[in-house]
Specification:
Blueprint: H1 8-19, H2 25-32, H3 36-48, E1 68-76, H4 82-93, E2 97-102, E3 109-115, H5 118-129, E4 135-142, E5 159-160, E6 169-172, E7 178-181
Antiparallel strand pairs: 1-3, 1-4, 2-3, 5-6, 6-7
């Protein structure tokens, strides 16, 4: 369920910063229809309340020599003990692991790993990942082509100004614009 603490301007701020995180406060204020001071206060509140977790540059993986992406499904021996938590923390601390999810299904964890090439992946797998004693099984899926990565979070589910009926709800798009729904 979406948080109702966000109003239309908050949603426009979130969408604008997701699209272009390097906006100055003045540029952001102009885009969302505020003067700079209230805009800055809103951004600071959104940061403090955890809606905005940080700012970073999205790097070109291939340009920096990390064009080999592998999705790894891991099964572990036990789930509900300290060793499982330690194993997860060890995996999360590995710089090659850029995403780690506990999942349902065939695997217990799904990792996204980036390395320069197959040789580096082999070393990562054999020397680091399989050295963890709790890992029972590993299945690697090598990405052949990437169609979408590091996309902005969808914000269309944030319904603003809802009064309990479907008439005239305002929704935010991922580009920071708004539309009236019938």
């Amino acid at each position: 369920m979406p948080n109702t603490d966000l109003d239309a301007i908050d949603c426009r701020i979130l969408a604008a910063l997701q699209a272009e995180g390097r906006l100055s406060n003045v540029e952001l204020a102009e885009r969302v229809g505020l003067s700079p001071s209230p805009c800055l206060r809103r951004v600071q509140r959104l940061e403090r309340d955890g809606y905005i977790e940080g700012y970073r540059a999205v790097l070109g993986r291939r340009r920096i020599g990390l064009g080999f992406t592998v999705f790894i499904g891991i099964k572990i021996d036990a789930h509900a003990d300290e060793r499982a938590d330690e194993m997860r923390d060890t995996i999360v601390a590995m710089p090659e692991v850029i995403a780690c999810h506990m999942v349902s299904g065939e695997a217990d964890y799904l990792l996204e790993v980036v390395v320069p090439d197959l040789e580096h992946y082999e070393r990562f797998l054999l020397d680091r990942l399989l050295a963890l004693t709790m890992i029972k099984e590993v299945r690697s899926n090598i990405a052949i082509q990437t169609a979408k990565v590091a996309a902005p979070l969808p914000l269309g589910h944030l319904v603003l100004g809802t009064t309990g009926n479907r008439g005239s709800d305002t929704r935010v798009s991922n580009r920071g614009s708004f539309s009236e729904e019938d």
